[in-house]
Amino acid sequence: MIPQPTAQQALPDETFTLQPDATIGLTDPALRTIADGFAARLRRSTGFALPVQDGTGTITLSTGGPESLGPEGYELRADASGVSITAATAEGVFRGVTTLRQLLPAKAEAGTAQDGPWEIAGTTITDSPRYGYRGAMLDVSRHFFTVDQVKHFIDLVSLYKINRLHLHLSDDQGWRIQVDSWPRLTEYGGSLQVGGGTGGAYTKADYAEIVRYAGEHYITVVPEIDTPGHTNAALASYPELNADGVAPKLYTETEVGFSTLTVGLDRTYEFLDDVFREVAEQTPGDVVHLGGDEAHSTPHSDYLTFVPKAAELVVKQGKTVMGWHEIADGPLPAGTIVQYWGTEDEKAQALAVKAVEQGATLVLSPANRAYLDMKYHAETPLGLQWAGLVSVEQSYSWNPATLVPNVPADAIHGVEAPLWTETLDDLEKVEFMVFPRLPGIAELGWSSEDALDWTTYKDRLAEQAPRWEVLGINFYRAPEIDWR
Ligand code: TNX
User: Fold this and answer.
1) DSSP secondary-structure letter at 327?
2) Is the distance from CB of 59 to CB of 50 less than 8 angstroms?
3) Which residues does 205 contact at the CB level (< 8 Å), separation at least 6?
4) Which residues form the Glycoside hydrolase family 20 catalytic domain (predicted)?
5) Rounded to 5 degrees, what angle do the CA atoms 398, 404, 286 make?
6) How far apart are CA 206 and CA 141, in angstroms?
7) Sign of the alpha-carbon torsion through 391, 393, 396, 400
8) How many CB atoms are located within 10 Å of the residue 316 CB?
9) 293 C-alpha to ligand 1 centroid (Å)
10) For the segment 46-80, what is each residue's pLDDT rounded down to a tens digit?
């Protein structure tokens, strides 16, 4: 099982077998969508009717579980008489159902009818996460991914109890979210992508559908509008945002650090006020990410002027500011979430410490461990290697609590695995970089410190492969793992 639950005990004499007459019961109408989704999946693979009914069933989903397990915690019991999942919230029940999927045989994930038996070894599980923020990031700017492709990405990360989807919605190569007050951002600024091919952008309806689908998986979308660098697509769309009033050309290569918003221009903040307002309006979650990374073309004094002004515009929308760790060099609003992407370099570590001294919390995305776009080894056909080669072991073998020196453990808000897409233009390539590394980052975010052990993890990881095969996931068969 990945992530490893907090506590699991075998019931040695008990086996649950799903029979053709099984039912799925819910003791709270709020669990209907979860029950329907789970039933639909199991109907496809088992061919059973699996009616969903109020009250108890062969498999019973309930709220009313202990508050002490937190909003995502749950208890699960599987024995000869049935399966029960109980949590304080619907979200906790959803995480429990995710666990139940992994307890069932891999073929339960199939899209067509398979032969049983559908057995689960008797067990009790009590489980809750170590961190409240367990993210995956998809860069839809360098290459555009359609709503259906993003939904597929959500399906994949949801298997491992990821609860945040960070969407990198703007960069030099493309602006991907509709802003009614600045329509050329998508019409023109979203038209291309890396390599010069046709790009794309989400209409408000598209974006709402992503947010809805993520919500159905108890995943909160964290939208990122990258500022003040990584802004060529915006600058190309509106000449008035440029210091000289001249729009640059659209950009379809992969350099970073050459573009910047104009810090001394009032229009810059009118622009951001509109953008953050419209983006915040479409964000049920409480966080908006303002980027802040690699602003190599912004004079540092300008950068220090800019970040608090941009942050204020996010706060004004009632949202919590999130940004890459560079933003910590200046003052941060209360409650800011700083995303650390350092590679054990002292400069990045000092910024993380500076963030925490200001009361910010940290989401850890160390590039030499958590970046899913880094090559596995020198011959990996996809990906980059500026942060080094990131094997499966390298990506898993670190402790979020001690990664950054001089940062107290309680300042860690969680972890996130970012997928930058300079070299990735379809889902097969995305899957190849995400699997098998994402489950490891998900486990670092969920499981207790004492459960983290590469030797046992790598056996549990190998056991996931049959599921990925049934699901048709194009995963990398890393030779470090004893695939079965
Ligand atoms: C650095 S790390 C970036 C991105 C690139 C990525 C490629 C960070 C916050 N920014 O602009 O896409 O490296 O790995």
Assistant:
1) G
2) no
3) none
4) 131-448
5) 95
6) 15
7) negative
8) 12
9) 8
10) 999 999 999 999 999 999 999 999 999 999 999 99
371 CB less than 6 Å from ligand 1?
Answer: yes
C-alpha span between 90 and 28 (Å, rounded): 9
Domain borders along the chain are: 7-127, 133-471
- State which ligand 1 atom lies nearest to the alpha carbon of 365: 2
Nearest C-alpha to atom 10 of ligand 1 is from which residue?
293
Instruction: For residue 362, give both structure tokens.
Output: 């940290």
3-state class of 3 per DSSP?
coil
- Distance from C-alpha of 374 to C-alpha of 385, rounded to nearest angstrom: 5
What ipTM was reported for this prediction? Answer: 0.94
| Residue 298 to residue 37: CA distance in whole angstroms | 48
CATH superfamily, with its number, for domain 7-127: Chitobiase/beta-hexosaminidase domain 2-like (3.30.379.10)
**CATH class entry, domain 133-471:** alpha beta
Say if residue 436 is preceded by a cis peptide, omega within 30 of 0: yes
- pLDDT one-digit tens code per residue, 144-176: 999 999 999 999 999 999 999 999 999 999 999
